[in-house]
Amino acid sequence: MGSSSTLTSGRLWSNHVFLSFRGDDTRKGFTHNLFASLERRGIKAYRDDHDLERGKVISVELIEAIEESMFALIILSSNYASSTWCLDELQKILECKKEVFPIFLGVDPSDVRHQRGSFAKAFRDHEEKFREEKKKVETWRHALREVASYSGWDSKDKNPYFGQIFKFLLEKLKCIDLSFSKNLKQSPDFDAAPNLESLVLEGCTSLTEVHPSLVRHKKLAMMNLEDCKRLKTLPSNMEMSSLKYLNLSGCSEFKYLPEFGESMEQLSLLILKETPITKLPSSLGCLVGLAHLNLKNCKNLVCLPDTFHKLKSLKFLDVRGCSKLCSLPDGLEEMKCLEQICLSADDSVELPSSAFNLENLQITFELPPSKLNLPSLKRINLSYCNLSKESIPDEFCHLSHWQQFCYPA
Known about the structure:
5-stranded parallel beta sheet, NAD, repeat, Resistance protein
């Protein structure tokens, strides 16, 4: 099996897998089924669906696709070596030092390695055609021998069970992006991807269920479920010790947030904007690393838990548009890091007196555009507001009955 130091780097790849195959042999059968199965499991694969054999060098686009793929799957069928395009492709893959997994599809690995049978015939033809380019043919031979020496999968079946392939790939994946997969109803089993660090399911509007393995994943740091319109909750007892970012914004049926475990100390950003939740779990206080909590336009939110004051790292709280939220809990004076609370001017959220004991706290009010339609307003005093002149809305300039306007100091 090939090796590559880039597998453990922080690089973002365009593709997880590059598929190298002989189109005439496998495109409509094995490769098609493999590609579809990879995509369903969140493994982004690249395949060239064009007519490969044109007698030209491989395209710049294909070279870029190879370079931007984390792994390469080489589907070695009986006619693979007869394609100079495939051989050039293979040579480039090895030059890039990709981690390579050969699939011996209906061929004996030893025949590939020693170039017997159809592989021997293919190279006789190449030697005849490229008499003046013997070095090129020898480079192809060497590339084929090298890839045939890697451990891979020996498949006699044209439509095999791909479980072993998925297992090898999923174990190495750090990012799964299934965003805007309109037909995805249930997420994959994440136990098969123990090294996963980033999960993006944004815009999966048919998603109704997240696999229970997700909420006990130990390495996942970022989870984006924005605009999953049919998702109602997450599996219970969240114990995600590495999770730092959780976005549920726009999940319009998400009514219930499960309890957080004590291990979730790393979560620093929680976005519940525009969800119909009515309350937050009492275990919210376990999120001792939470710095940013966005509850904007949670119109059904009635209260915050009594454990809210335990969020000692919280810097930013947005409760604009939370029209049913009457007050914030007592104990805000214990939240020394709190820097900003965002409110709407037409909301009735009552702040506890303890909030005004926080020296660094700024309380900002959003004035809806409708409130700026005040044609008879004559006087306004902003002298003691912590505002710059540039922050005053332009709409004030259009009020026609001004008699006195006191700018901020």
